[in-house]
Structure formats: C-alpha cells, structure tokens
Amino acid sequence: MSEAFPSIKKIAYGGPKSKDPLEYKWYNADEEVGGKTMRDHLRFSVVYWHTFRGTGSDPFGVGTMLRPWDDGSDSVENAQKRARAAFEFFEKLGAPYYAFHDRDVAPEGASLAETNRNLDAVVKVLGEEQQRTGIKLLWGTANLFSNRRYMHGAATSPNLDSFTFAAAQVKKALEVTHELGGEGYTFWGGREGYQTLWNTDMKRELDHLGRFLHMAVDYKKQIGFQGPFYIEPKPKEPTKHQYDSDAAACLNFLRTYDLMEHFKLNLETNHATLAGHEMMHEMQVANGAGALGSIDANTGDYLLGWDTDQFPTNVYLTTQCMLEVLAMGGFTTGGVNFDAKVRRESFEPIDLFYAHIGGMDAFARGLKIAHAIRQDGRLADFVKQRYASWDGELGRDVEAGKVSLADLEARALKMGDVATIASGRQEFLENLINEFF
After folding, report:
1. Where does the chain bind Mg(2+) 1 (predicted)?
2. pLDDT per residue over 295-331, tens digit each?
3. Which residue in 137, 123, 127, 177 sits closest to 43, CA to CA?
4. Quick one: CA dihedral 256, 259, 264, 269, positive or negative?
5. Under 8 Å between Cβ of 253 and 243
6. According to the model, what pLDDT value does residue 70 have?
7. In this structure, are residues 51 and 349 in contact, taking their beta carbons and an 8 Å threshold?
8. DSSP letter string over 139-194?
9. Other CB atoms closer than 10 Å to residue 75's CB: what's the count?
10. Confidence class for position 341, pLDDT limits 50, 70, 90
11. Is 102 labelled as part of a ligand binding site?
12. Same domain, yes or no, for 356 and 420?
C-alpha cells in the first residue's frame, strides 16, 4: 500500500522558537518534567472515529473531507486499508496510543455473525500494525447509538431485543479490546436517556443499565481483562437528558448499583461545558472520589450550544487539566485522548496534523506550567491556609464524626460571633497564576 501522507515526515520537536507548523513547539516526548517524560505524563491518544471516520458533514451540509486513502465503501478491504493509513498517521505524529469504537474500524454485516467476522478481519490488521509500530490501544468501546435499533437507547431501551443485541455487541467489543491489549474500556451512553418522561420508566431503565454493567463486569473477569472500565459523562445531545449527565451523577449511579470498585470516569471538556461545569470542576469531583481515570481532550465554542469537539488550544484550560492529573499522581491506564475533530472547512489531510500538533503542544505547555505551579507552592499554601481553622483539634474531631450539633452549639454560645473571616483573594490568585504564562 502506498503512503497515505507521502509529503509528511515524522513530526519532530523544534522548540518554542520554531516557525514550522509541522514541528512541535512544546511537546518533547523524551523531556522529563518532575521525574517523568512528557510521553509518560500525557499518554496521548488519537481517536479513530473523528480522525479517520469523520466526513465533515453537519445538519446543513454533506461531508467535505478529502481522504485519498479511503474509497468511501463499506467493504472490509477498505476498512483494512483505512487502518493502515491510520497507523501511518499515528506513527508520523508520534502518538503512543489510539482509541476506537467497534463500528469505526469495521462495517456491519447482514447479521451479527457476519459483523463479528468483519471486525475480526480488521482487528487482525490493527494487531499487525500495533506490533509493527509499538503503538497501543488506550481503550476500546462499542457504538451503541448510531444504528436505528438503538433509537430508544441500548442498555436502557424499553425493547428487550435491543438490549440483547447491545449486550452481544459489548461482549465482542470487550473481546477484541482484550485481544489488542487495550488498557481500558469505555462506556458512553449516547442514547441512554430520554426525550420525554411521558413514555419513560426512569427507575426501570436505570435498573437495566446497572444490570447491563454488572454483566460486563462479570464477563471482564471471565476473559481475564485487567483494564479498568470507564464511564464518560454527558448531559444531553442527542437525547434531552442522558443518565450519565455529569461526574456527580455518574458517581451516584455507580454507588447506587454497587459498581464503584469496577469503574472510573473518562471526562471530556466539551461535555463538562454542556453540563454547565468547568472541566476542572468535573476533574475535582472525580478526583475527590478516587475515580478520575482518563480524559478526552477537546473544547467547545462558548457561543454554540452543542458538542463541537474542537481541538484544545487554550493553555489555561490544559494547565487546569494537568493540575488535576498531577494531583492524582498521574495517569496509570488512562491518558489524554483527542476526542476532537477538524472543522468542516479544514478538509485537507494535512489539517489532521496541524490540529493534533496544536493540541499536543497545548497540553505539553499546560503540563510544564502545572508542574511549575506545584513546585512554586504558593497556590497550595494559600488553599491550605484558607482551611487552617480546620487543622486544630476541634476541626479534626468534626471531620472524624466525633462532634455533635449540641457540642457545637455549646461552643457557639461561648464564642459570641465569628471573630475573623479571611478574604478569598480571587483576583490575587488569578494574578499569581498569570505569572506562569
């Protein structure tokens, strides 16, 4: 097979002063930050669905993308050719990981058995390319939202046949993820929600989702898959309300259905925005529960109210993300997965490189700034001092559950009033953070 990107050489590190758009300015894979290489800190992953299946279509127009390696057919042969083109891209970009949905990489057939054979044929090529390049699978997942059989949901569908088909699809997706050495597996409930409550038994649907995930946990153990399961929150779109609406809702669901020990969260910036949160908020919620596993790296347009999946270039955003990643001790099986797509107007193959280079540089720079902020210590010291009143004997006893309301009332009666309240100094802290940019 001829090269898919014949004019592109392996992307090199040129440094901050480089003017070459096909060089990294900040991402130097072997550079150590805090005793670990950037490669190991960031664990960059390219998504198959947007990068190699995205057409550039939108509700008002057909696809615009020029992809010379792809003949546009749904044949297995074309899917295998596309897989080799994808690995050429991963290799030239220097990305150590990729991620996919089952239906991204292989076409559906006339039956589930034929569909599984199609997937096996392409997975064989993926395995060969992984072996050739050393590139790994960050995580796999099943597309349980595109086919019309999932119009009412998959694991939450009122139709048992749809639930059954989804279970079979996840079983196969878990098998191929395991076969390819995937380091995790993600569940994204694209249509696990409702459009109207007039036709919805919410409690029963959530019970079915809990049962579905328990079956997946059981099968994971059966086949010996060691990677974590992730749930990816998103509040809406395509449904009016999705059950995995934000990090807190996901954690509540996992606790309710006794799944916390088996799942972590894969968080996405654009989904956080749609939920009315900052990404740092979602990451802190997950971190607080010990459940931050991986992130999808993108951003949205604040003037548009839908999931635009743009590449992240805001260094303040990436710094906030990396502060939270460093706070949890770094990724283990997760990583920075570019669930992002080039704009409809950026239709040439080279635009895929520009987009990923920009996102990788933004996260590399964010990593360095986040590390510098932590090394500096002033931000952490301020937060620690703000809560200093809790560090005495009484504060420790309250936190340990050793104090009653009556105990605190007795103390309050002797206090008079609250004597001093310290300023939150938001503006001071914003100025402090600006020193690092």
Report:
1. 232, 268, 296, 339
2. 999 999 999 989 999 999 999 999 999 999 999 999 9
3. 137
4. negative
5. yes
6. 96
7. no
8. EEE---SSSGGGTT-STT-S-HHHHHHHHHHHHHHHHHHHHTT-S-EEE--TT-EE
9. 12
10. very high
11. no
12. no
pLDDT band per the 50, 70, 90 thresholds, residue 144: very high
Determine whether the annotation assigns residue 296 to a binding site. Answer: yes
Residue 437 host element (H or E): none
The answer to the question of residue 50 being in a domain is yes
* Inside any domain, residue 381: no
Tell me: pLDDT of 1 over 80. no
Q: Is 339 annotated as a binding residue?
A: yes
The whole-number average pLDDT for the span 161-169 is 98
| 397/161 Cα distance (integer angstroms) | 54
433 membership: H or E segment, kind and range: helix 426-434
pLDDT band at 198 (very low <50, low <70, confident <90, very high): very high
The response to whether 397 counts as a known ligand-binding position is no
The pair of three-digit structure tokens given for residue 287, joined into one six-digit string: 């971190």
CB burial of 209-228 (b: ≥16 within 10 Å; e: otherwise) equals bbebbeebeeebeeeebebb
Catalytic residue among 41, 50, 102, 104: 104
Model pTM?
0.97
Domain identity same for 424 and 303: no
Tell me the CA distances in angstroms from 344 to 68, 71, 302, 347, 426, one per residue in order. Answer: 17, 19, 18, 6, 39
**28 and 99 share one domain:** yes
Is residue 104 flagged as an active site residue?
yes
On the CB side of 347, CA atoms within 13 Å amount to 11
**Distance separating alpha carbons of residues 374 and 116, to the nearest angstrom:** 48
Give the per-residue pLDDT at 419: 85
Query: Taking all residues of the chain, what is their mean pLDDT, rounded to a whole number?
Result: 97
- Read off the DSSP letter of residue 222: H
Any bridge partners for residue 141, and if so which?
101
Both 42 and 98 in a single domain?
yes
56-114: pLDDT as tens digits: 999 999 999 999 999 999 999 999 999 999 999 999 999 999 999 999 999 999 999 99
pLDDT tops 90 at residue 392: yes
Structure-token pair, residue 274: 């749609």
Catalytic residue at 20? no
CATH of the domain at 50: 3.20.20.150
